[in-house]
Automatic annotation (TrEMBL):
SUPFAM superfamilies: Pentein. It comes from the Bacteria. It comes from Belliella baltica (strain DSM 15883 / CIP 108006 / LMG 21964 / BA134). This is arginine deiminase. It is an enzyme of class 3 (hydrolase).
């Protein structure tokens, strides 16, 4: 599989998703904020909604849907890799000395679950009775959970020039990118086709960037949000790698307000066809500054790039890159409904083909506006999935699309 994508809307051929599991049941009213949830979801209903979403993708596109858990089990048969991930997962609780002990007692599938759902002291004690966990209380996490894993968009990004592995900003999501990177760099189906653009080798603690901030504007241009989650230093390194690779000629850094409902660039707009963009109306006014990176020269193996600050709005950038641009506002521009639907990611639809999208059923004003424009809208139930504050694009990691 050629792990490069030259559009946001070519007919979907392969996608990676994660069915929410036990990690969701770890959320409580007291840790939900730290773990970046607005509420405590009901897992059974959430799984039903997610299954509906996955089945819909398969039925309507015939795309191959990879599941994170299965890929994890496949790569974790490599003991060295499992050791590395398990040790890292135990760092926060200070229990790295338990790494081999845990690996010796749990099957590979159980280790995969432990790495995503986390493990509490009392659960481990059931498996390993004479465990020494020092000061840790029975209900403390030995391995913290990763409830945001169903937002597969964020731990990496596939661009026309290769893959960006994220460096997650928030404490509660930091291990997600390492899991994805372990899969893509080791799984036989993918590893030969990874052209890694980021992190740059030798960076121990790379500046943060999250996949939701990366949008392919065209075959030659990529936009990256400078946001609550993505640092300008990371954008500089990614721009350099992308421009040096040669497929992409322009990288835009789009400055977003540092607000929860603008957390990533894809919360603000999505591209539905060669000339159609869906956007939250306020965003076009709020985003007033962008920078443009282009290649200056490559001399003696050194890449030199140029950064120009453009005092132009997001709209101007979109108009420059997308010919005959048509903009559709969420909720057809009604400020009250647009605001309500923005909270539930109205602009964050998932394009499965040109003018063919999957959208939350709750965003009915936006869905109606899309249909009025001739876009095919396939709705998915959204009572529980939306509690993590991400939409259909956030929940998918497209790996292959028909070329545009
Ligand atoms: N691309 C996206 O906007 N992803 C949504 C991520 C939601 C998650 N609860 C977070 O705050 O990171």
């Amino acid at each position: 599989m050629n792990l490069r994508l030259n559009s946001e809307f070519g007919t979907l051929k392969a996608v990676l998703m994660h069915r929410p599991g036990k990690e969701i049941d770890r959320l409580t009213p007291y840790n939900k904020e730290y773990l970046l949830f607005e509420d405590v979801p009901y897992l059974d209903a959430m799984q039903k909604e997610h299954d509906f979403f996955t089945d819909l993708i398969k039925q309507t596109t015939g795309a191959q849907v990879f599941r994170l858990h299965e890929l994890m089990i496949q790569v974790l048969s490599d003991e060295k890799l499992l050791f590395q991930l398990m040790r890292q997962a135990l760092t926060k609780s200070g229990m790295t000395h338990l790494t081999e002990h845990i690996m010796g007692r749990l099957s590979t599938a159980e280790c995969a679950t432990a790495l995503t759902a986390g493990v509490k002291v009392h659960e481990l004690k059931r498996k390993i009775p004479n465990l020494s966990t020092g000061e840790l209380m029975d209900y403390a996490f030995v391995i913290p959970p990763s409830p945001n894993l169903y937002f597969q968009r964020d731990p990496m990004a596939v661009t026309p020039g290769g893959i960006i592995f994220s460096s997650m900003k928030m404490d509660g999501r930091q291990r997600e990118a390492d899991l994805l990177r372990s899969i893509f760099e080791n799984h036989p189906d993918f590893k030969e086709n990874v052209n890694k653009l980021y992190p740059v080798n030798g960076h121990d603690n790379p500046p943060s960037i999250e996949g939701g901030d990366v949008i392919v504007l065209s075959k030659k241009a990529v936009a990256i949000g400078n946001s609550e989650r993505t640092d300008e230093k990371a954008i500089y390194h990614v721009a350099k790698a992308l421009l040096a690779e040669g497929t992409v000629e322009r990288v835009y850094e789009v400055h977003l307000p540092q607000k929860r409902n603008y957390m990533h660039l894809d919360t603000v707009f999505t591209i539905l066809d060669e000339n159609l963009v869906l956007t939250y109306p306020d965003a076009l006014n709020a985003v007033l500054q962008t920078s443009l990176y282009t290649l200056k020269e490559i001399k003696d193996d050194k890449v030199h790039i140029k950064r120009e600050v453009l005092n132009v709005s997001l709209l101007t950038v979109l108009e420059k890159e997308i010919p005959y641009l048509e903009i559709l506002h969420t909720a057809d521009g009604n400020p009250d409904y647009a605001m309500r639907e923005q909270w539930f990611d109205g602009a964050n639809v998932f394009a499965i083909g040109p003018r063919r999208v999957i959208s939350y059923n709750r965003n009915k004003h936006t869905n109606r506006a899309l249909r009025n424009l001739g876009v095919e809208v396939l709705e998915i139930p959204s009572s529980e999935l939306s509690r993590g504050l991400g939409g259909p694009r956030c929940m998918t990691m497209p790996l292959s699309r028909a070329k545009i």
